[in-house]
Amino acid sequence: MFDIINKFENKIAKFFGSKFAVSTDCCTHAIEMCLIYNKIQNISIPNRTYLSVPMTAKKLNIRWQWQDNPWEHYYKLSDNIYDAAVLWKQNSYIPNTFMCLSFQFKKHLSLGRGGMILTDNESAYHDLIKLSYDGRSRDLPWAEQDIDSFGYHYYMTPETAQLGLDKLDTAINTIPKTWSWQDYPDLRNMSIFVQ
User: Fold this and answer.
1) If 0-12 CB within 10 Å is exposed, 13-18 middle and 19+ buried, where does residue 51 land?
2) Domain containing residue 122
3) CA 107, CA 120: separation in Å to the nearest integer?
4) What pairs with residue 180 in β-bridges?
5) Which of 114, 110, 82 is nearest to 9 (CA)?
6) Distance CA 20, CA 120 (A)
7) Nearest of 39, 34, 17, 57 to residue 128 by alpha carbon
8) How far apart are CA 88 and CA 171, in angstroms?
9) Average of pLDDT values for 166-171?
10) Using CB atoms within 10 A as the burial measure, which of 98, 139, 150, 179 is most buried?
11) Would you say 192 and 53 are in contact if contact means Cβ atoms under 8 Å apart?
């Protein structure tokens, strides 16, 4: 079953121009794992983005501040972490970063749910796989492993990866919508974020 996951990850990495890609169950969890992995303590969040981003910062006790950022395609959360949930552009990976993609039902490659972390850091690639698979490796059944690191249940299912493979050629050959800050409401006006 991991062959399907690996194949989908490799095709996404090749399309975006990164060395590696780690599939996840959603973009929010991809961002969360990148923040945890990089031990981020402080981020800036555009006031116009999806609401799970500031909620994730709050969940992780990360200090955050609003940023009036007229972004397009993606935006930077920290020095090396990008929320690229709406990005769909060949060879757009930024070297030495973690770029988090979304395959939610409104996105260009619409799988209903799912995400991906693009990176060129091989060590981070292996660590993030374990972080997304309950601390386990994909190499052996989990009961045959000595789990030595903490992880989350944030992995992409083989069925979602297969759907991604089935839809990938169409997505590559179709012009994507250009997403920007204007597609989102100002989160500062929502009661949950009034401070």
Assistant:
1) middle
2) 2-193
3) 24
4) 72
5) 114
6) 6
7) 34
8) 9
9) 98
10) 98
11) no
